[in-house]
Design goal:
alpha/beta; Lysozyme-like; Muramoyl-pentapeptide Carboxypeptidase, domain 1; 5-stranded mixed beta sheet; 5 strands; 31% helix; 9% strand; elongated; binds zinc ion
């Protein structure tokens, strides 16, 4: 399977992309683009940047936009040009962003799903660029987002038991809200589990709903409860 630069990669296409790779793979590297500018939110722009520096085009295999779309970067059959001295056997992923607080929860949810899809076809050790370079890249806690152990392997999050089915929404408070927050955190969201359904919780609910294929309305009703109970990690 091959894709053109910038084309959207669907989750179910990851296995096919990996299947076509004829080089050994052992490590997945995580990067951020070091920009928050909306006009840079495309794999094609990363490609132009790299070419402008005299390099052979985009160094990453996949680029995750702020809205959580996975775009095709470099041909997956080629080694990345992203971590000096560590490109052999590597797959390189880049999330668009610079300031930690400006990454979108959807990007982290998509990174989790992408890494899970990769691992399902080809188990990798996941590492951040900062582990081999004097850089902050990626600026977010990728170890926590991916649930990595000391060796960089993803650990499945224990599925949170979800028993209740009452609807909760923005500005609600109580145990059910805390339960939603805990379930979202178990799936990689960054939330304080305080039982207060604020804007951050709403954003995390919407990101989860988007990923789970539930109407992304930010309201946790029966459908979202069911999706939270069904999704393991
Ligand atoms: Zn990097």
């Amino acid at each position: 399977m091959s894709k053109r630069l910038g084309e959207t990669i669907a989750q179910q296409e990851v296995a096919g992309l990996l299947h076509a790779v004829r080089r050994p793979l052992h490590t997945g590297w995580i990067h951020c683009s070091a920009s928050d500018r909306p006009e840079h939110d495309r794999a094609q722009v990363m490609d132009q940047w790299h070419r402008a520096r005299g390099w052979s085009g985009i160094g990453y295999h996949a680029f995750i936009t702020k809205s959580g779309v996975v775009q095709m970067g470099r041909d997956w059959g080629q080694e990345p040009a992203a971590q000096e001295g560590h490109n052999t056997g590597a797959l390189a992923l880049c999330l668009h962003g610079l300031a930690l607080e400006r990454f979108a929860l959807a990007q982290f949810a998509v990174l989790q799903a992408l890494a899970a899809a990769v691992d399902a076809a080809h188990l990798l050790r996941w590492r951040g660029h900062c582990e081999v370079a004097a850089k902050a890249c990626p600026v977010f806690d990728y170890r926590r987002v991916l649930g990595l152990d000391a060796r960089g392997q993803r650990q499945p999050h224990g599925a949170t038991e979800v028993h209740t089915a009452g609807t909760v929404r923005l500005f609600d408070r109580g145990d059910q809200v805390a339960q939603v927050q805990q379930a979202l955190c178990d799936r990689g969201a960054f939330l304080v589990v305080d039982g207060l359904f604020g804007r951050a919780t709403e954003a995390a609910v919407i990101a989860f709903q988007t990923r789970a294929g539930v109407t992304p309305d930010g309201v946790v009703g029966p459908e979202t409860w069911a999706a939270l109970a069904a999704v393991d990690g």
